[in-house]
Specification:
Number of helices of chain B: 19
Number of strands of chain B: 17
Mean pLDDT of chain A: 85
Number of strands of chain A: 0
Radius of gyration of chain A: 25 Å
Strand content of chain A: under 5%
Distance between the termini of chain A: 22 Å
Helix content of chain B: 25-40%
Largest sheet of chain A: none
Oligomer: heterodimer
Number of helices of chain A: 16
Low-confidence stretches of chain A: none
Strand content of chain B: 15-25%
CATH topology of the largest domain in chain B: Dipeptide-binding Protein, domain 3
Mean pLDDT of chain B: 91
Distance between the termini of chain B: 57 Å
CATH topology of the largest domain in chain A: MetI-like fold
Number of domains of chain B: 3
Order of helices and strands of chain A: HHHHHHHHHHHHHHHH
Shape of chain A: globular
CATH architecture of the largest domain in chain A: Orthogonal Bundle
Low-confidence stretches of chain B: 1-26
Helix content of chain A: over 70%
Chain lengths: ~350, ~525
């Protein structure tokens, strides 16, 4: 009895220590992220006052805004003031939109989230089977095909692919709708709640609007999916090759287990563990907002917002956006660690 | 079982894909005008603050000014909200009468009280465009005594000097002088802000359209104003969609998903010329493209070098090829269409003449200078063309690319050698450009006013005096002559290589009729558009 309690206490302390370390790591990561972004923003030779008052403002207006933005204070003091505010959950006001950063990000992030989610689903659904196929047929034509497709996905500029995709699927074949998230005709057919148009329209049973939104998102999402597919399929291939060379696979084959079962159940289950991290990181990459994709497809997402803010030296917006992206990366990393635990009993036991 | 689930998902998405095209192919609705435009420059919808191209155009279609002019003939000035006006003997007071029986979109009547409120509010808020009004001697403290209501439909406008009446009236056509609905705005006042926090994202006007919604970097939705005093627009709705990429705008236009594309690059214009469903329209704008030569540079400060530079630009070729008709050659600081504008173009590419001038200046072998070049495709292409022609006379021009904020920051600090840029007038009176190209009251580094002449460190006390005198000349003809002289002098001596005047080109579907393009963006009107 006493033994188990003692053990439980030790395990609790262990967890607590682990948790404290985690919090510390996250805090240091965010602090570093903010510091570096802040400094970059101040080194960029762009006058933030210009973004607010424009080129023509008389000196009195310019000076007033200069002081309003706190630019007359030393750099460290500006940063310290910013940190204090962030701790109270106040990310400041965007110089450009003059609205709270939190509101701005809440408005642009769902567009990116929706696009990235559909993109990563496509990338995974296509990439994982393609990688398995390439691994099983190693060195044969399917392997080469997947490799070539992956190579094109890696190296072709997304900007160019996007325009080409629009030209072919939108302008010539008329398979998909053009740039933007939804047609004007459907714009007011539903009440935006989450900002995720597919979700909102489906929940409200507006299937016409849903189909329209789907025909808008499918091309840019496929494009992003193609990019993540390139990476996911390559990684799947190498994980699967490693698994298929293991002794348990040979054993299973000797025992007469059907080949599809060996590949799709035994080997894939083991390869899935590192694959989760790969997919999570690809997803995080897409969630940053792909500036070029968003530009070509007139997608009002985080990527466009951040670029525009950076070009106008709207530092509150840039810092806020960076924090969101940082949180996504850290969050997805933690999540994939957690999934590791679930998927791999060995990790669980070690803990 | 992973593979079954995967299969299921794949099948579902395949089904969805094949089902999707059924819902496509909606033409734009018949009562809605949809335009594609890059609208990421909008920072406010409050007329007291609006100073950007897109927001000006929105204001021009949703608010009314006291005074208006015919966009096809800017000399024709008439009252919009104003019924009539009278100038006092000493030329310092203008008494306005306001039209009776008109109302705002809200239903509130438009009275002199609203006009006085709008003008004093703009002065008190003191945002970027406030100087257009405060140059007549108003300050936030004194304005209540100077712009005074004298009756329900009349008020006085008292200035510190007898300014040229045309100057005053043209300034009152600017967006900063637009009439806002006092009652509605003051309902939303917070901490004595004159409703600024509210109005920057809302609407309180009387123009042909009302603003329903603005989502930054996404869309602006306007609706027909049923209380508009003039002819009601045919369109029930007018929408701007933010489409940053010009090739995308072109595709959308060709597919009929938008009615008008507002940002077209040279290659898009070339492609659209072949499209039977699309019409291209062009309108002369007031913006000018120029190079500013910093007089702090030892070479550029020599008068002959400044002149030589003006012979080292291949004006016509740039206008015809690189800009594909989006500019025309113009070499005076007043754009075509302004009172007293000089339309002569004495300079053309002449390498021999430039070499002679350089020899006179004592630099026969040429020299090396840098030019800060905004990284837009057009400015970059212009810069490269100028680089080539300068090289013919031995001048080595190094281009420093940067984005708009970067190059402008450097320019405003006078840290450039040469800056290539674009300047648009703030209102329709010649003083707006004379004020910046031909006036420099204080050339010291910490000067209070920093016009373009200051930015290029061009110290011109005599010219400044002449420009100041022109502001007070009541006789329009004499005043025009004064500006002609200023422009001629500037052409010969100034550090400004003025090259082009902008032409706005838009592409519209053939069924779209009635879009009016005026000299400034707030004159662009779609109130009469039909389709």
């Amino acid at each position: 009895m006493t033994g188990t309690t003692h053990l439980r206490g030790r395990r609790g302390a262990l967890w607590l220590g682990k948790f404290a370390r985690l919090v510390l790591t996250v805090a240091v990561t965010f602090f570093g992220l903010l510091l570096v972004t802040f400094l970059i923003g101040r080194i960029v030779p762009v006058d933030p006052v210009l973004a607010v008052v424009g080129d023509r403002a008389p000196k009195s207006v310019y000076d007033r805004v200069y002081i309003e933005l706190g630019l007359d204070k030393p750099l460290w003091e500006q940063f310290w003031m910013y940190l204090q505010k962030v701790f109270t959950g106040d990310f400041g006001i965007s110089f450009l939109s003059k609205r709270p950063i939190v509101d701005d990000i809440a408005r642009v992030f769902p567009a990116t989230l929706e696009l990235a989610t559909v993109g990563i689903i496509i990338g995974t659904v296509v990439g994982v089977p393609a990688g398995i196929w390439a691994a099983v047929r190693q060195g044969k034509w399917p392997d080469q095909l997947v490799r070539v497709l992956g190579l094109v996905g890696y190296s072709a500029p997304i900007f160019w692919l996007g325009l080409l995709g629009l030209l072919v699927f939108y302008a010539k074949l008329h398979w998909v709708a053009g740039p933007g998230r939804i047609d004007i005709a459907y714009e007011y057919a539903f009440t935006p709640k989450t900002g995720l148009i597919l979700w909102d329209t489906a929940m409200q049973g507006q299937w016409g609007a849903f189909a329209n939104a789907f025909s808008h998102i499918i091309l840019p999402a496929s494009l992003l999916g193609y990019f993540s597919m390139a990476y996911i399929s390559r990684m799947t291939r190498s994980f699967m090759l490693a698994e298929l060379a293991q002794e348990y696979v040979t054993t299973a084959r000797v025992k007469g287990v059907p080949e599809w079962r060996i590949v799709w159940v035994h080997a894939l289950r083991n390869a899935a563990v590192p694959l989760v991290t790969v997919i999570a990181l690809s997803y995080a990459g897409l969630l940053e907002g792909s500036v070029l994709t968003e530009t070509v497809f007139a997608w009002p997402g985080l990527g466009q917002y951040l670029t525009n803010s950076l070009q106008n030296a709207d530092m509150n917006a840039v810092l806020g956006g960076t924090l969101v992206i940082g949180a996504i990366f850290v969050g997805l990393n933690l999540l994939s660690d957690l999934l590791y635990n679930v998927l791999d009993p060995r990790v669980r036991r070690r803990a | 079982m992973i593979h079954r689930r995967t299969l299921l998902t794949a099948t579902v998405s395949a089904l969805m894909l094949s089902a999707a095209p059924v819902t496509l192919w909606a033409e734009t609705p018949a009562d809605t005008l949809i335009q594609a435009w890059t609208i990421d420059d909008i920072i406010s919808l409050d007329p007291a603050e609006i100073f950007e191209f897109t927001a000006s155009e929105i204001a021009g279609n949703t608010y009314e000014t006291l005074i208006g002019y015919d966009p096809k003939n800017v000399a024709d000035i008439f009252g919009k909200v104003a019924e009539s006006w009278e100038i006092s003997e000493d030329g310092k007071t203008i008494s306005f009468k306001v039209k009776e029986g008109r109302s705002f979109a809200s239903g509130n009547p438009i009275t002199a009280e609203d006009v006085v409120f709008s003008l004093t509010r703009a002065v008190k808020l003191d945002k970027s465009p406030a100087f257009i009004l405060t140059q007549f001697g108003f300050t936030p403290e004194t304005v209540d005594d100077l712009i005074v209501q004298t009756g329900d439909y009349s008020f006085d406008f008292k200035m510190d000097k007898p300014y040229a009446p045309t100057l005053v009236l043209y300034c009152l056509t600017a967006t900063v002088a637009m009439v806002v609905d006092k009652k509605l705005v003051m309902e939303h006042e917070v901490n004595g802000d004159f409703g600024y926090e509210w109005l920057k994202v809302n609407y309180a006007g009387s123009g042909p359209f009302t603003i329903r919604e603005w989502r930054a970097n996404e869309v602006v939705v306007m609706e027909r104003n049923e209380n508009y005093a003039g002819d009601k627009p045919a369109m029930a709705r007018a929408i701007y969609r933010h489409i940053p990429e010009t090739a995308t705008q072109r595709l959308l236009l060709q597919q009929g998903d938008i009615d008008i594309a507002r940002n077209l690059a040279a290659e898009d214009i070339a492609a659209l010329k072949q499209d039977p469903n699309v019409t291209l329209e062009a309108g002369v704008k007031g913006s000018i493209y120029y190079m500013g030569l910093n007089q702090k540079n030892e070479f550029l400060s020599k008068p002959q070098v400044r002149q030589a530079m003006k012979y080292l630009v291949d004006y016509q070729t740039i206008a015809d090829t690189i800009m594909a008709g989006k500019v025309e050659v113009h070499q005076a600081f007043l754009p075509k269409g302004f009172l007293g504008a000089v339309n002569d173009t004495p300079f053309s590419l002449n390498v021999e003449k430039a070499k002679e001038l350089l020899a006179e200046a004592g630099v026969p072998e040429g020299f090396t200078v840098t030019m800060d070049t905004r990284n837009t495709p057009e400015i970059t292409a212009m810069g490269q063309a100028i680089q080539q022609t300068m090289a013919m006379a031995g001048i080595k021009l190094e281009l420093i690319p940067g984005d708009g904020g970067q190059t402008l920051t450097k320019y405003r600090a006078r840290n450039h050698d040469i800056y290539i840029g674009r300047w648009g007038p703030d209102y329709q009176d010649p003083h707006t450009n004379a004020d910046t190209f031909a006036r420099n009251p204080d050339n010291s580094d910490d000067a209070a006013s920093k016009p373009l002449a200051w930015r290029n460190a061009w110290d011109i006390p005599e010219m400044t005096a002449k420009a100041d005198a022109a502001v007070l000349e009541a006789d329009a003809d004499k005043r025009a002559q004064m500006y002609v002289e200023l422009q001629k002098e500037s052409m010969e001596t100034s550090p400004f290589v003025i090259m082009f005047q902008e032409i706005e080109v838009l592409g519209e579907r053939n069924n779209v009729k009635g879009f009016v393009m005026g000299p400034s963006f707030n004159d662009n009107s779609f109130a009469k558009v039909t389709k």
